[in-house]
Design a protein that fits this description.
Layout: E1 4-8, E2 14-15, H1 19-30, H2 37-42, H3 48-56, H4 64-80, E3 84-85, H5 89-98, E4 102-107, H6 111-121, E5 130-133, H7 145-154, E6 162-166, H8 169-178, E7 182-186, H9 193-197, E8 203-205, H10 211-214
Parallel strand pairs: 1-4, 1-6, 4-5, 6-7, 7-8
Antiparallel strand pairs: 2-3
Helix pairs in contact: 1-4
Length: 217
Amino acid sequence: MIELAVLDIAGTTVEEHQAVYVALEDAVRAAGVDPTVADIQRWMGADKREAIGGLLGVDPSTVDDTLADFRARLAAAYAATPPTLLPGVADALGKLRANGVKVALTTGFDRGVTDSLLAVVGVDDTVVDAVICVDDVPAGRPAPYMIFRAMERTGVRDVSRVLTAGDTVRDLEAGTNAGAGMVVGVLSGGLDATALGAVRHTHLLPSVADLPELLGY
């Protein structure tokens, strides 16, 4: 029995039209580095400070200016094209919780970006049980710490009763590193079944909207 579903935000539960990766690429390019598509994909799902440091080849603690530029670009993109919940996600979250499954969201965004994003899409504590940001833990994905923190916040003690879902390689790696009972890749983000399926997982689904059916609800 699954007691907790830990779900990524951008590309997994929220449609934000890949704005995060456009903003990341543009901010890094403005800082003097010309990343390839593969470079950006390598950092999908990561702590954005860590991603910027990795792309620039510098210590992440030194990237404040580029991180601020990234945040400004992302805010402008969201203002121009407001993010929304992906189709069927609201109903899926409702069904999970109605059947006793707690729902936590995790993200490589910091708390400020996350709170603003979730306010736009109408997600609060009436919709999910916990929201864990990368600045709540010692390290972002593929470390399992956000998943463990979600378990702490929701009172779930058995990781075999945890389902994780995400649209990036790092999401799946974090779920596997946590020892989650179900590690689900969803194809609603920027990676196809070939790229996402190459990483250890238990299931691949088109969308988080398919989770209730997977669990028999």
